[in-house]
Design a protein that fits this description.
single chain, 106 residues, mainly alpha, two-stranded antiparallel sheet, two-stranded antiparallel ribbon, 5 helices
Length: 106
């Protein structure tokens, strides 16, 4: 199973699909490390930085400053999907993020 993150909405790459509601709920619970039913920006950043670390080869190909660019993009994405600006992502906001950006292959 592989994940792909894209900024191009409504363009699902060949061989990938949207996550199911069950997969989204499971992922939300995993990221919500303090079990508050919200994802804080710290929880968000740590989770996605771990994912980035798994693709060190890809980061290296993008250049020496690519991790900083990715971190800024992750921070911006959090702010974009935090619709009520409470510095927390609720389940619906998280589901919207995944539906717009994350695809998975089986």
């Amino acid at each position: 199973m592989h994940y792909i993150i894209t900024q191009e909405k409504n363009t699902i790459p060949a061989g990938y699909r949207n996550l199911t509601d069950e997969e989204i709920a499971k992922d939300f619970i995993k990221i919500d490390s303090d079990k508050s039913y919200f994802i804080s920006k710290n929880e968000w950043m740590v989770n996605f930085i771990k994912l980035l670390a798994e693709d060190m080869e890809g980061l290296e190909k993008k250049g020496p400053d690519s991790i900083m660019k990715q971190i800024q993009e992750l921070s911006d994405e959090f702010d974009k999907y935090d619709l009520d600006n409470n510095k927390m992502i609720d389940y619906i906001e998280y589901k919207n993020f995944l539906s717009d950006n994350i695809y998975i292959s089986d």
